[in-house]
Amino acid sequence: MARTFSIRRQRGFTTIAMICFFALYLPIAVLVFYSFNAGDSLASFDGISLRWFAGAFENQQVIDASLRSLQIAAVAAVIATIAATMAALATTRTEAYRGLTLKYAFINQPLMIPEIVTAVALLIFFARIKIWTGYSGLGYLIAAHTAFCIPFAYLPIRARLENMDLTLEKAAADLYATPWKAFRYVTLPLLWPGILAGFMLAFVISLDDVVITEFVKSAGQDTLPTYMLGQIRRTITPEMNAISTLFLFLSICVVTVFFIVNRKRV
Amino acid sequence: MEALWSPSAKPKRRGQQLHARLSVPHMAELNAVEIRNVSKVFGFGEFAFAAVDEASVSIRQNEFFTLLGPSGCGKTTLLRLIAGFEYPTSGEILLNGEDIAAMPPFKRPINTVFQSYALFPHMTVAENIGFGLTMLGKPKQDIKDRVAAMLKLVRMEALAGRRTSQISGGQQQRVALARALAPQPKVLLLDEPLSALDYKLRKDMQIELKRLQAETGITFIFVTHDQEEALTMSDRIAVMSSGKILQVGNPREIYDAPTDRFVADFIGETNFLKGRINSVSGGIADVETPVAGRISATVPQDFKADGEVTVVLRPEHALLCPPDQPPACQMTGTLENVVYFGTDTHYHVRLSDGETLFTLREQNKPLQGARFTQGDRVGIALEANAARVLRN
Q1: Nearest CA in chain A to B119
Q2: Domain assignment present for B261
Q3: Domain A61-264 maps to which CATH number in 1.10.3720.10, 3.90.1300.10, 1.25.10.10, 1.20.1440.230?
Q4: CA B213/CA B217 separation, integer angstroms
Q5: In angstroms, rounded to a whole number, what is the distance separating the alpha carbons of residues B372 and B322?
Q6: pLDDT band, very low/low/confident/very high, at A265 (cuts 50, 70, 90)
Q7: Would the CB atoms of A165 and B118 count as touching at under 8 Å?
Q8: Is the residue at B356 inside a domain?
Q9: B237 and B314 share one domain
Q10: B106 versus A41: which is more confidently predicted?
Q11: What is the mean predicted confidence (pLDDT) over B254-278?
């Protein structure tokens, strides 16, 4: 039997794959390893200890920044997911029409615009509003995060909807379901994995953001990434490693939870 | 089954009220569905396209009615107009005498079996069947009983708890039927529901559908492009082409007495002969044809036939005979092709004008070889009263 082409059987495939994985994960492994360093140095390892983790948990600034990060990420991801769900429904639960491609482009444009451009634009825009209104709370950060999270939430939701038979809602309507009930009992349950995926993605993206946050935040509004950036400018201690490790652990948890929840519903 | 919803149950929801309202007495006198001058135009200006064009048809109570036509003829659009997924550009759609043209689908006591079945993948078989009743706000116990009855009706009791992705295509078909029948609709619409099944299963389901219709007494409106399916299953058939309803009649009328060239051509095999009318008397025309001489042909009702006309003849209404034996053998030609079909044999004869290819079909008799072979000169005898004049 003639074998079909398979990249896995090409020479050097395994080697290249291993190099790629090392490049990806070795630095992270080193970082995690050094977060357990008992000594003060980033360069030499002096035995295993949890002192930097303990230090991080006692550092009020770290705790404040972390809570702020989670708060912003949670609110922004919820709003972004709702907006993205509505956008995805509007762009897929209809027959194709003129201008639909343009709408896709508009929704996804934030992915294409350089983040620094958005950041500068928001800085100037929000500065005006701050002067006019006098308000300088977390609202600006939440608004900014929501805006750039929408396309990330939109993509998995739209992908899910596109694989969904348009006839299902028609069948629901045919069986006496009002538009709201059809959405509630047919569309939403089938869409749920996509919405969850969109939410997780938006949450992680928001948690991770540095550039826009750095520009938009007011004094005393550090999120965890901007706090870390600020700390690294001064002295670098293994505490940074410990915080990074915790951050990594949180991300893995989020992804794992999502994976398990998603696997239950086929 | 009719007594399942007791009249004492309070109508709580709008859909339920509608059901009550439409169940007016003397319903039998009304047509189940009446389509009056319905048009559906898609697009605007020069791109405007009438998917359904001034269609009018009455569908009677408890009828197995088929919309038959090639793809793109507007039969599915007409079905969607009845279901409420599209709204007509003009015209009226009456359900038991009430105009429902502007009513949204979820208020119409009409259910649909979709071509793709459209079963809800996140629900079990039983939940799918109960969906319509749940949406109508029926009491839980009633839904349970009704679902059990429907499962029994389509012989799916054993699979009630399965996911719809865990059952075969034929079983999905049955669930789709049960789901659509469960709320006891006034009319059941079926959009080419058998097209995805293999030959054997399709034959079984045809019988099953007839049985379900007889047992439930619900009006079925069935859409298909398969003329054989239409002929075997329907009480009456409407043949559609280019958005228009060309002819409505029972299968025998449609097959034996097509009034339209398209209908004659679409249903079964047909021979077309050109001719000129000499005279008409008592619905029979005397037609002079270049290839077959004079033929007596039936004229459709309320059609004034004169001048050039087309005459149709079914392949089984002609016989091969030795050539040059007038007057019985009216036509002569060369046998171009002999096709053996088991039950019968098809002969394709090139007529004397060298142009027309005439098809005829003879039933095979036991232990009898072919009477003629390819290349033979043959005569063709026409059965009396078999020819018909077409309107166009």
Answers
A1: A168
A2: no
A3: 1.10.3720.10
A4: 6
A5: 9
A6: low
A7: yes
A8: yes
A9: no
A10: B106
A11: 88
| Closest partner CB to B111 (pick from A175, A186, A190) | A175
Q: What is the pLDDT of residues A44-100, one digit of tens each?
A: 777 888 888 888 888 888 889 999 999 999 999 999 999 999 999 988 877 777 788
The ranges assigned to domains in chain A are 61-264
B221 and B353 in a single domain? The answer is no
Q: Tell me if residue A212 falls in helix, strand or coil.
A: helix
Q: Sort residue B184 into left (φ over 0), alpha (ψ -120 to 50) or beta.
A: left
Residues in chain A, overall count: 266
Q: Are residues B242 and B345 in the same domain?
A: no
Q: Which domain holds residue B360?
A: 269-389
Q: Are residues B374 and B231 in the same domain?
A: no
Evaluate if residue B8 carries a pLDDT over 60.
no
Query: Is B127 in the same domain as B244?
Result: yes
User: H helices within chain A, ranges in order?
Assistant: 13-34, 51-58, 60-92, 100-112, 115-133, 139-162, 167-174, 179-182, 188-208, 211-216, 224-233, 238-264
Amino acid at B264: A
Q: What is the pTM of this model?
A: 0.78
Determine, yes or no, domain membership for B263: no
Q: Tell me the CA distances in angstroms from B304 to A219, B310, B313, B325, B389, one per residue in order.
A: 94, 14, 20, 34, 11
Q: How many domains does chain B have?
A: 2
Q: Do B114 and A175 count as a contact with CB atoms less than 8 A apart?
A: no
Whether residue B305 sits in one domain with residue B208: no
The highest-confidence range among A67-71, B201-205, B340-344, by mean pLDDT, is A67-71
Q: Report pLDDT digits (tens) over B65-107.
A: 999 999 889 999 999 999 999 999 999 999 998 999 889 999 9
CA B127-B130-B131 angle, 5° bins: 85
Contacting A residues, span 158-217, partner chain B, CB-CB under 8 Å: 165, 167-168, 170-179, 181-182, 185-186, 189-190
Sheet holding B90-95, edge to edge: B49-59, B33-42, B90-95, B98-99
